Backbone:
């Protein structure tokens, strides 16, 4: 029971920090989002394509009207 109480106290002590962190940066994200809203996305540029016929590059025109899932992955 002591360990649980200590864990809860630690969680409650750290929780407000996370809220301030989120609130501090939300304005910048909104500005960036609003600058792109309603505009065409940039051209798709990639050196290799997977699961396209003959690995031909795609364009937004070819994808118009389709659901597009963009999965960004990187290894640092």
Residues:
């Amino acid at each position: 029971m002591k360990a649980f109480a200590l864990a809860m106290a630690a969680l409650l002590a750290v929780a407000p920090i996370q809220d301030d962190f989120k609130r501090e940066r939300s304005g910048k994200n909104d500005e960036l989002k609003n600058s792109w809203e309603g505009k065409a996305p940039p051209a798709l540029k990639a050196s290799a394509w997977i699961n396209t016929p003959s690995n031909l590059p795609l364009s937004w025109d070819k994808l118009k009207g389709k659901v597009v899932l963009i999965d960004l992955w990187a290894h640092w």
